[in-house]
Structure to design on (936 residues):
């Protein structure tokens, strides 16, 4: 058999129809996200176990995170999710200029998120709250507080890596969008990237209260 | 269906064509002749062969480590290797065999080759992702190989904390990185299979018409997708802890080493089913073909695969009975572990029932399958003993455990893998392996296996602990160890033999024809080796799987075919 | 949409039994329009507003003492927010049952991971019902029961 004949140039050789192709890519991304749920799930488990072991220390440690910056980043990420959703809509309705605009906005917001994150990390670095040799926190609960910051850095770090990967993918999609590759007939890559990006947002929706907002009501908290 | 025995390829080198510029789309082996055409291929069949070459290499590497372990244990004294070298040997044997051979074995080689063929698709849903998984596997393997060459690692393949995080001064980071990367290969392969099975089935290929191998692959993929990331994060945490020197798993610094074991076994117990489920799928395929009979209890075998995958996620704590895990959790995990026996036994009963009044042919794949059923049953039943809290307290960390999981992993999985290679070899290469040598190898593997591992049950029961390279002279262990080592030699020869005759038959074997076994299934309805896009035109499925009773050209004159 | 020519399947035409799975889905899709469902931008905007409000409530709650309820409230809001994202931004509301199944199975496995591990931690150090004595001291060197358990 030679290369299979097909009427639709947007369908890869292994698929019969465009619908089959779209459903396969969407299912593929969802299964990947299931993997991601379990990936972050291991960390959420570690958090849960240690939070319950060392509740007071975790509440104490959480006070050293910046609610303001964390809140701003939450807003930034939610907004980027909106722009990403709008980009998907623009692709589905063949609005070429809007697609490029919304993808660019998403990209900018992703960089803003990383920038704010970098500022936060710098502060922790200054305050000696980075676990390991540089950890200078002095308290009877030193080890437990270090455990909190370990989990904080691994969770937000891994989330940051996902943002970075997202930036790469969105940039690639943006280039393709500028070349006019996406329209009502073909927009799987935008759709699937959108799914990934929203998932990164969902993870942050949980990270923000779990890391930044515990024990804030306690007297002496700030 | 054609049973054309004319060589499609002419004689000689199956990769050879007179004019290399002509791309022969009717034979995937000849569709490109350059190294580039192999390394950049997106054809699932070629990727399967790439995996075959890589994991065969890893298998023999792991086999060399095993051989050294057995040699050392021949005598009570530590006269061949030092204790630290011995620690590295069994660690690297475990890591190479588990992560780089057993987990990718049937899924990555035969799954890749067969899944699209069996469902009547042109390729996987994501061919490029498929190629990427192979590269990811290779990158992971390179990191691990580097660790091995640079001096090895001695944490056992389980990386138990706090030893691996705070004390081991071997190449833990490199190995961990290798396994972490290899995990993504496993995840991506599983993802590809699930999407392919859901979205790429040919017209008429309903779920309950699918070959049971596909059900097994589907169940395996679910474990790969949901389990692998958890071990990934566990290994990641070990790595970060080693770099930063903090104590997420170090009790001195407030961490809990048992948490690592929870994370690790949440994957690594279901990983046992990643290894065994595809083997069960192979057995279902082979046994029905060589009994010339429809498989007994198709829906039960199909669903029991999913059940094993599901229940497999509830039982990981039985690896931790003698750690600091609470006895109550141990009780729950023990009780749940018994449940796994139910779907496993359903399969064994159905296989034996399929044999009943079938017209059984004792060809090489079938011999391997018989080996599988016997050895897997012994492995499974001793697994029940180990799932019992009281017995486990007694024999934990002894050779009893070692023997148990080798009965499942080697006796089960490896024999099924060999059965599968023999069964589909004619389809993969268009050539027949030498049947006589094949039967000899099956016999040698079966005998050698028993000789190697049965004495280990007794050793373990008598109290020989695992992970030790010496043992007391007067304990009476030596005779059993010598038996075991002798068996390992036979076993090794039994595995070397197929490597030689497969390589030989690839070039010089006699052309096999499209369907040498007169088997049912879409993969047998295309040519051997298959064309690049698998089928001349998309096949249409109108009958259930294994419909041997209505098959015209049966060889089974004495068969008493039971109506479906 | 690029409907495939039925002829591609040759004799499959008309035979209900052999309708290709993707064709079945295509027929199914036809129920809600010829193209994949397109969510209106106004829906996205509404979800966005809800997310912002949810964030503000989360922060406000965190600074007030609700006793043992602070954490459940925070997590409850997070669950609602993420459900909104999943249903509307990620189009699960208009996806098939398979997508829902993938999510449910993943979350179920995550619950198993957390629940069974917690079953270990929650019962550590409790009185042993099998012997009339304290929990065995064996393995105490590694026994995290030596670290405080809530």
């Amino acid at each position: 058999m030679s290369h299979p004949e097909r009427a639709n140039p947007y369908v890869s050789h292994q698929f019969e129809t465009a619908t089959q192709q779209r459903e396969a890519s969407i299912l593929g991304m969802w299964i990947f996200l299931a993997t991601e749920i379990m990936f972050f799930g291991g960390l959420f488990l570690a958090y849960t176990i240690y939070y319950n072991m060392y509740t007071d220390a975790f509440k104490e440690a959480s006070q050293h995170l910046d609610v303001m910056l964390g809140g701003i980043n939450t807003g930034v990420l939610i907004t980027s999710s909106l722009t990403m959703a709008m980009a998907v809509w623009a692709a589905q309705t063949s609005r070429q200029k809007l697609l490029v605009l919304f993808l660019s906005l998403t990209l900018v917001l992703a960089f803003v998120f990383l920038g704010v994150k970098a500022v936060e990390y710098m502060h922790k670095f200054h305050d000696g709250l980075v676990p390991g040799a540089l950890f200078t926190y002095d308290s009877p609960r030193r080890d437990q507080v270090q455990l909190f910051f370990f989990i904080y850095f691994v969770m937000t770090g891994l989330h940051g890596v996902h943002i970075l990967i997202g930036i790469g993918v969105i940039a690639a999609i943006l280039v393709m969008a500028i070349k006019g590759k996406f329209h009502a007939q073909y927009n799987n890559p935008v759709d699937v990237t959108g799914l990934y990006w929203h998932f990164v947002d969902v993870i942050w929706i949980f990270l923000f209260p779990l890391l930044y907002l515990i024990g804030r009501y306690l007297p002496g908290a700030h | 269906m054609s049973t054309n025995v004319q060589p499609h390829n002419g004689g000689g080198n199956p990769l050879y064509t007179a004019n290399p510029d002509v791309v022969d789309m009717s034979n995937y082996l000849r569709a490109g002749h350059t190294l580039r055409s192999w390394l950049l291929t997106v054809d699932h069949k070629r990727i399967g062969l790439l995996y075959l070459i890589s994991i065969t290499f890893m298998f023999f590497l792991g086999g060399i480590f095993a051989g050294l372990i057995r040699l050392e244990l021949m005598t009570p004294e530590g006269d061949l290797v030092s204790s630290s070298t011995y620690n590295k040997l069994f660690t690297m044997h475990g890591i190479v065999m588990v992560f780089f051979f057993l987990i990718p074995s049937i899924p990555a080689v035969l799954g890749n080759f067969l899944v699209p063929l069996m469902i009547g698709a042109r390729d996987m849903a994501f061919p490029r992702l498929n190629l990427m998984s192979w590269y990811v596997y290779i990158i992971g393997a390179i990191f691990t190989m580097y660790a091995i060459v640079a001096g090895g690692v001695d944490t056992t393949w389980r990386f138990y904390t706090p030893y691996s995080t705070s004390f081991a001064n071997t190449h833990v980071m490199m190995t961990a990185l290798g396994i972490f990367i290899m995990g993504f290969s496993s995840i991506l392969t599983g993802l590809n299979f699930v999407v392919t099975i859901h979205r790429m089935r040919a017209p008429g290929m309903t779920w309950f018409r699918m070959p049971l191998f596909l059900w097994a692959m589907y169940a395996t993929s679910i474990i790969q997708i949901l389990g692998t990331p958890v071990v990934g994060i566990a290994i990641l945490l070990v790595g970060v802890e080693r770099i930063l020197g903090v104590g997420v798993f170090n009790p001195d610094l407030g961490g809990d080493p048992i948490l690592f074991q929870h994370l690790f076994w949440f994957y690594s117990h279901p990983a046992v089913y990643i290894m065994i489920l595809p083997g069960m799928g192979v057995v279902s395929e082979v046994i029905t073909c060589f009994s010339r009979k429809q498989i007994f209890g198709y829906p039960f075998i199909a669903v029991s695969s999913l059940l094993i995958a599901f229940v497999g996620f509830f039982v990981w704590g039985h690896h931790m009975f003698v750690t600091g895990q609470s006895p109550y959790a141990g009780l729950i995990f023990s009780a749940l572990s018994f449940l796994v026996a139910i779907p496993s036994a359903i399969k064994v009963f159905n296989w034996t029932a399929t044999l009943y009044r079938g017209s059984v042919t004792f060809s090489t794949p079938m011999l391997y399958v018989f080996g599988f059923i016997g050895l897997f049953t012994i492995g499974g039943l001793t697994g029940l003993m180990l799932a019992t809290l009281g017995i486990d307290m007694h024999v934990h960390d002894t050779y009893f455990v070692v023997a148990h999981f080798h009965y499942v992993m080697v006796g089960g999985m490896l024999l099924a893998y060999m059965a599968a290679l023999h069964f589909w070899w004619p389809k993969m290469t268009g050539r027949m392996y030498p049947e006589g040598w094949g039967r000899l190898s099956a016999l040698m593997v079966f005998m050698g296996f028993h000789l190697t591992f049965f004495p280990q049950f007794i050793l373990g029961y008598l109290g020989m602990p695992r992970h030790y390279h010496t043992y007391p002279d007067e304990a009476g262990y030596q005779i059993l160890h010598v038996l075991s080592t002798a068996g390992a030699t036979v076993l090794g020869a039994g595995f070397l033999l197929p490597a030689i005759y497969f390589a030989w038959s690839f070039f010089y074997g006699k052309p096999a024809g499209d369907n040498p076994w007169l088997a049912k299934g879409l993969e047998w309805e295309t040519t051997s080796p298959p064309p690049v896009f698998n089928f001349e035109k998309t096949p249409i499925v109108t009958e259930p799987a294994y419909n041997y009773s209505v098959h015209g050209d049966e060889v089974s004159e004495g068969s008493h075919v039971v109506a479906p | 949409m690029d409907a495939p020519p039925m002829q591609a399947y040759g004799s499959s035409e008309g035979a209900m039994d052999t309708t290709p799975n993707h064709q079945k889905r295509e027929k199914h899709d036809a129920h809600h329009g010829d193209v994949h469902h397109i969510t209106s931008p106004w829906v996205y905007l509404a979800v966005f507003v809800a997310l912002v409000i949810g964030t503000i409530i989360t922060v406000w709650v965190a600074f007030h003492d609700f006793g043992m309820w602070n954490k459940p409230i925070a997590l409850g809001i997070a669950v609602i927010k993420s459900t909104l994202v999943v249903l509307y931004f990620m189009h699960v509301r208009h996806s098939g049952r398979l997508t829902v199944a993938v999510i449910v199975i993943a979350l179920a496995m995550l619950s198993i991971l957390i629940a069974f591990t917690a079953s270990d931690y929650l019962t550590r150090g409790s009185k042993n019902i099998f012997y009339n004595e304290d929990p065995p001291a064996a393995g105490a060197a590694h026994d995290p029961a030596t670290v405080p358990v809530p």
About this structure: The helical segments of chain A are 18-53, 55-62, 67-92, 96-126, 142-178, 188-212. The domain at 18-212 of chain A is CATH 1.20.120.80 (Four Helix Bundle (Hemerythrin (Met), subunit A)). DSSP finds six helices and no strands in chain A. Confidence is low (pLDDT under 50) at residues 1-5 of chain A.
